[in-house]
């Protein structure tokens, strides 16, 4: 005990106990900081000068570093004001860091900036650097903020020649490609030649036309495909897939023998029940199901929802107009007898300009439902009667979450002034509390975001 006290006292006198730690621990600590914060530590002392250069997390997120990139003037992020002046600065910054990096391996490599195919040579070099460092998590996020971003011909394309260096991708566990054109041949290569690849997410690729995940030997556990507008088909057969998420146009989908699949999310701009039917063989094992529909009128066929005996969480994202009744979706909840969490996000596409009588739903007890969340709560008849349905029927309800913020994903909100919308949200928060506070039972927590 005396030795411990003496050591603590000495440590207090020196006032630099952290520098007594071995380099491996210090690098581990620095790797948890942002890249900018880690580099700043180089001025502490001669020992710290190059410690940051061995960190195993390289996250080049423009949101975290924009203050250093835009050296001469401040610009507004997420707008076309990110001009060609900023792009070379970002590229030079990444190149300087990679030239100084000394660590033998990296766990995560992430690029996030507005870059097009004009910087392909640099992007290719970055990917090869990550592969040579046996990266485990690779994310290339080339989100465009230019007005001309819809000119898909300028988008960076993942080159086939990077795949010729065999063995470089064996450590890869997690791959995310956002606004990167990638062909099905490249995706198929990753699936066949990355023995540790468990997570694959492809966003906004205009070259991806088909995708096949076939074979029980594949390690892939999580698959996400988002806004690949030219995609025609996805085949999932004899796999160990745990989660599958799809956002995009109607496609041909084949799902067969996926015994571990428990989390499914489907968002179709042109909704059909055909994709949902493909998962019917998996319904008995599903634990999480997310469905998005652009319009309330696009009815989901209730007869498809049979056998959801293990579903614990159901998420619905629905586009609605005026003050349409949302009670027509309650039978989906009734089809899930052991449901514990229900999330309903209402994406209003027009003002609530109709007033009508509140409909009282039929009595239908839910004996396992504990948490209900309603997003896009506008305090109209539709969302109020939906909230009352769960307050009246969820017998062991613990919490009801009301989120009055705008939920719309499919329609632009650029015409809504931010200040005006914030004021409306505050008004809706106050009104929602007035509507519901006296209705919930004493043991139920009412949480208004």
Describe this structure in words.
This protein has helices at residues 2-14, 23-30, 35-40, 62-69, 86-100, 120-132, 184-193, 274-278, 330-334, 381-393, 418-436, and strands spanning 57-61, 108-112, 137-141, 174-178, 199-203, 210-214, 222-226, 233-237, 243-248, 252-256, 263-268, 288-293, 313-320, 341-348, 371-375, 399-403, 445-448. It is α/β, with parallel strands linked by helices and 449 residues long. Strands 1-2-3-4-5-7-9-11-12-13-14-15-16-17 form a 14-stranded parallel beta sheet. Strands 6-8-10 form a 3-stranded parallel beta sheet. Residues 1-10, 66-78, 146-150 and 409-416 have low confidence and may be disordered.
- Name the poorly predicted regions: 1-10, 66-78, 146-150, 409-416
Query: Strand content of the residues, in percent?
Result: 15-25%
In terms of structural class, how would the helical and strand content be classed?
alpha/beta
Distance between the termini: 49 Å
Trace the largest sheet across and list its strands.
1-2-3-4-5-7-9-11-12-13-14-15-16-17
Order of helices and strands: HHHEHHEHEEHEEEEEEEHEEHEEHEHE
Counted beta strands:
17
Major β-sheet, in short? 14 strands, parallel
Gyration radius, to the nearest Å? 26 Å
Task: Determine the mean pLDDT.
Answer: 81
Can you give the helix content as a percent range? 25-40%
Bulk shape: globular
- The number of distinct helices, counting runs of at least 4 residues, comes to 11
């Amino acid at each position: 005990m005396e030795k411990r006290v003496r050591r603590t006292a000495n440590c207090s006198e020196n006032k630099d106990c952290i520098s007594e730690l071995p380099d491996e621990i210090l690098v581990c600590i620095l790797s948890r900081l942002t890249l900018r914060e880690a580099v700043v530590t180089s001025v502490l002392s001669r020992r710290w000068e190059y410690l940051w250069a061995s960190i195993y997390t390289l996250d080049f997120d423009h949101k975290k570093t924009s203050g250093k990139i835009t050296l001469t003037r401040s610009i507004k992020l997420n707008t076309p004001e990110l001009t060609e002046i900023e792009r070379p600065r970002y590229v030079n910054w990444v190149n300087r860091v990679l030239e100084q990096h000394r660590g033998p391996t990296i766990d995560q490599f992430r690029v996030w900036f507005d870059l097009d195919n004009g910087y392909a040579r640099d992007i290719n070099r970055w990917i090869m650097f990550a592969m040579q460092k046996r990266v485990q998590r690779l994310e290339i996020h080339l989100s465009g903020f230019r007005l001309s971003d819809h000119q898909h011909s300028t988008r960076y394309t993942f080159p086939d020649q990077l795949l010729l260096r065999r063995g470089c991708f064996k450590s890869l566990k997690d791959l995310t490609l956002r606004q990167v054109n990638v062909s099905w041949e490249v995706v198929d290569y990753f699936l066949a030649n990355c023995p540790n690849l468990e997570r694959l997410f492809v966003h906004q690729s205009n070259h991806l036309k088909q995708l096949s995940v076939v074979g029980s030997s594949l390690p892939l556990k999580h698959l996400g495909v988002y806004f690949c507008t030219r995609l025609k088909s996805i085949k999932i057969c004899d796999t160990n897939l745990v989660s599958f998420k799809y956002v995009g146009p109607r496609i041909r989908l084949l799902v067969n023998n996926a015994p571990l699949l428990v989390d499914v999310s489907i968002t179709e701009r042109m909704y059909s029940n055909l994709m949902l039917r493909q998962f019917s063989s998996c319904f008995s094992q599903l634990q999480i199901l997310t469905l998005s529909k652009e319009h309330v009128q696009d009815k989901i066929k209730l007869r498809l929802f049979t056998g959801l005996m293990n579903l614990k969480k159901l998420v619905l994202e629905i586009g609605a107009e005026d003050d349409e009744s949302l009670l027509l979706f309650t039978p989906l909840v009734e089809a899930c007898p052991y449901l514990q969490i229900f999330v309903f996000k209402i994406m209003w596409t027009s003002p609530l300009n109709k007033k009508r009588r509140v409909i009282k739903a039929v009595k239908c007890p839910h004996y396992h439902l504990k948490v209900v969340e309603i997003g896009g709560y506008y305090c109209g008849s539709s969302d109020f009667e939906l909230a009352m349905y769960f307050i009246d029927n969820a017998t062991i309800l613990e919490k009801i979450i009301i989120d009055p913020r705008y939920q719309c994903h499919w329609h632009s909100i650029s015409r809504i002034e931010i200040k005006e919308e914030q004021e409306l949200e505050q008004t809706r928060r106050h009104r929602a509390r007035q509507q519901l506070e006296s209705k919930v039972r004493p043991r139920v927590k009412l949480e208004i975001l």
